[in-house]
Amino acid sequence: MAIATTSYFISRTLLFSSKKLSSTMSMASKTIHSSSQSITPSSSPSLKIVDSHLHVWASPQEAAEKYPYFPGQEPSIPGDADFLLKCMSEAGVDGALIVQPINHMFDHSLVTSVLKRQPSKFIGCCLANPAEDGSGIKQLEDLVLKDGYCAVRFNPYLWPSGQKITNEIGKAMFSKAGELGIPVGIMCMKGLSLHISEIEELCTTYPSTVVLLDHMAFCKPPVNDGERETFSALLNLSRFPQVYVKFSALFRLSRKPYPYEDTGELLSQVISSYGANRVMWGSDFPYVASECGYKEAKEAVSLIASQIHVSSSDLEWIMGRTAMQLFEHS
């Protein structure tokens, strides 16, 4: 994938000891110390740190000149590409999957321009348009084949009122994604329990389409029977080998302040059910910048991983290897 051509960085958050790396890696590595156990990444030169979930949108000037916001979706925080690149550089993140933001709705021109300016650093996830006239199917195909998008996001709350993502248009787009060889990210912002039956139906009917569950399907650490049942449903989706989980936007999942330690048990059980090679970290930039900071969001994963005794190999999968393998042809 294009991300793999970027310079090799080993995140300082993956190291917890003062051991020296071999001379072949000494120029490309950084070290971060933690009060917890030592985790040492492998010496594979292909290892990159990849953010599997973030957004960019136009600066106010860009919006005024060329890339207008969708009416009513004007952002209240900065999320321009220059800000993102600065944050990624400071955090030692090599590449990312940019998810089309609702701020520009189905106008992908801003994100497309960023992808073209930084082809070695970014790949794109477009936003599915569930218009009843079926125009979104052709748009999806064009965005993938002409503009190089590598994934598509299903936002159930953009579907016509009263309709599900398993309606005729939803199934057509889901099937088309499988034909195009791109995964479908599903945002269950109002709760996995509202969409579990739809996800199971799509996975059963179209097993060749890969599914990404954004933000752990919005499952918080359960505190009651209903939440425990929903989290069990998330774990049970692992029976579909094409389903992956994003351990992303931890500030949305945690009931505690940074570093969101209560998400550790969630991560532990997800790794046990799915395997680390079906789990990937994501920041949810730019929202995370005002929550805990971009660099801190990346570091939180290593802190959490050390507390639940995640192996260095598993941590490598979560911090980049899973995304690199999933998008290796992108």
TrEMBL record:
InterPro entries found in the cross-reference section:
ACMSD, Amidohydro-rel, Metal_Hydrolase
Give the Amidohydrolase-related domain ranges.
Answer: 50-327
Q: Name one GO molecular function term.
A: carboxy-lyase activity
Please provide the record's keywords in A-Z order: Decarboxylase, Hydrolase, Lyase
Q: Which family does it belong to?
A: Belongs to the metallo-dependent hydrolases superfamily.
- What this protein is called in its record is 4-sulfomuconolactone hydrolase
Q: Which organism is it from?
A: Phoenix dactylifera (Date palm)
